[in-house]
């Protein structure tokens, strides 16, 4: 027998026994996830061809921390502060006044319309390349107020393992987020291994034009083109992917329709809901939270067959022990 083949044969039992989800606590939930993946990747009644192994993930609160406010909202707030000298009226104009007063509670309670107003004011009037550069520079330096770590270090280690495990088993993994598509695309590949073309999110209107230098560019207009949240998520999936997923993971009522669309299809399906119930290692919130509210989905999860993932009980670790991206 050839040496390489012999070595492979000797290592095979060890590789087969390797735990693909080491940060997930052993139990019924972990067993069900691995059992689902085994079923759809093993020839038999539940086998799913690789091209149809589509898995979709919300981002905020599902792949990384979303409290005390959404990370993109923190970015928008920093942009408000940078632009405020040119807009003196913002000091008394909601929601800009809340930003300038550092009132995070007021921002969290301001609602979806206020967030869109901030985005329209701070994310536009730039080319797509200029905006991507701003995001990249900000995400490399901004730190979370509680954990004093970069936001890209506050991704969930168990979810990084799940993404890697699925890809190793022939799945294609997508982000489907209510957050801005252009806010996520500059960094998702380095952090999650998810390339820009597999990121679906809310979109600002873009217009093609020729700049003063004679070069073409895409300019960001102060208009919302598409909101990828709630009922918008299945629409975004259909437009962008063209296939119904077989696995969906979310954490809030904003992900309800995505999970419902995914798990109501034919054949084997899996829906997971991350439940934030760990105030010591992260946060505890669900029904009464202005950010990441989990209410109707929590009530309906059992009847829909969605598995609830307890951060406290099912995850041995929440965040990576070391920075996920180089400093």
TrEMBL record:
<keyword id="KW-0378">Hydrolase</keyword>
<dbReference type="InterPro" id="IPR023214">
    <property type="entry name" value="HAD_sf"/>
</dbReference>
<dbReference type="Pfam" id="PF12710">
    <property type="entry name" value="HAD"/>
</dbReference>
<feature type="signal peptide">
    <location>
        <begin position="1"/>
        <end position="18"/>
    </location>
</feature>
<dbReference type="InterPro" id="IPR036412">
    <property type="entry name" value="HAD-like_sf"/>
</dbReference>
<keyword id="KW-0732">Signal</keyword>
<dbReference type="GO" id="GO:0016787">
    <property type="term" value="F:hydrolase activity"/>
</dbReference>
<protein>
    <submittedName>
        <fullName>Haloacid dehalogenase-like hydrolase</fullName>
    </submittedName>
</protein>
<dbReference type="InterPro" id="IPR050582">
    <property type="entry name" value="HAD-like_SerB"/>
</dbReference>
């Amino acid at each position: 027998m050839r040496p390489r083949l012999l070595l492979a044969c000797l290592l095979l039992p060890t590789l087969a026994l390797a735990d693909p989800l080491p940060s997930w606590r052993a139990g019924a939930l972990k067993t069900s996830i691995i059992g689902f993946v085994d079923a759809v990747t093993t020839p038999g009644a539940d086998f799913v061809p690789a091209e149809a192994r589509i898995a979709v993930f919300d981002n905020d609160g599902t792949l990384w921390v979303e409290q005390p406010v959404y990370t993109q909202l923190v970015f928008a707030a920093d942009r408000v502060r940078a632009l405020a000298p040119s807009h003196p009226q913002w000091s008394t104009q909601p929601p800009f006044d809340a930003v300038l007063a550092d009132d995070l509670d007021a921002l969290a309670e301001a609602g979806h319309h206020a967030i869109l107003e901030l985005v329209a004011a701070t994310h536009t009037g730039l080319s797509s390349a200029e905006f991507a550069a701003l995001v990249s520079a900000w995400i490399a330096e901004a730190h979370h107020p509680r954990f004093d770590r970069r936001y890209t270090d506050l991704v969930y280690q168990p979810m990084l393992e799940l993404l890697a495990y699925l890809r190793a088993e022939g799945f294609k993994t997508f982000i489907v987020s209510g957050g801005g598509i252009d806010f996520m695309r500059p960094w998702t590949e380095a952090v999650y291994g998810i390339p820009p073309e597999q990121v679906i999110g809310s979109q600002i209107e873009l217009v093609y034009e020729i700049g003063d230098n004679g070069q073409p560019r895409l300019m960001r207009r102060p208009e919302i083109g598409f909101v990828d949240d709630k009922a918008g998520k299945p629409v975004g999936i259909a437009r962008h992917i063209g296939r119904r997923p077989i696995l969906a993971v979310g954490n809030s009522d904003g992900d309800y329709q995505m999970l419902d669309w995914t798990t109501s299809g034919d054949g084997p399906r899996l829906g997971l809901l991350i439940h934030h119930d760990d105030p010591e290692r992260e946060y505890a919130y669900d029904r009464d939270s202005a950010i990441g509210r989990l209410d109707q989905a929590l009530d309906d999860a059992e009847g829909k067959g969605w598995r609830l993932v307890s951060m406290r009980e099912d995850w041995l670790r929440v965040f990576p022990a070391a920075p996920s991206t180089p400093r």
